[in-house]
Write a structure and sequence with these properties.
By secondary structure, the chain is mainly α. The protein has one domain. The chain is built from two helices and no strands. The mean pLDDT is about 90.
Length: about 55
């Protein structure tokens, strides 16, 4: 019988590793533009708001 706690712990650990991997990729992609992930999010919402007329 498989221990469900260990399966959940392993899944959680793998999600954390994947999240860290994605964050590093985003950080490296934004480095040439001197932007942080948070700054990119703000720019995204500003652009989205200008297209919908909200703002």
């Amino acid at each position: 019988m498989v221990n469900l706690d260990s399966i959940h712990a392993l899944a959680y650990f793998n999600i954390l590793k994947t999240s860290n991997w994605i964050e590093e990729r985003v950080k490296n992609a934004l480095k040439p533009f001197n932007l942080t992930h948070a700054q990119l999010n703000v720019l995204y919402y500003l652009r989205k708001g200008s297209k919908t007329g909200v703002g």
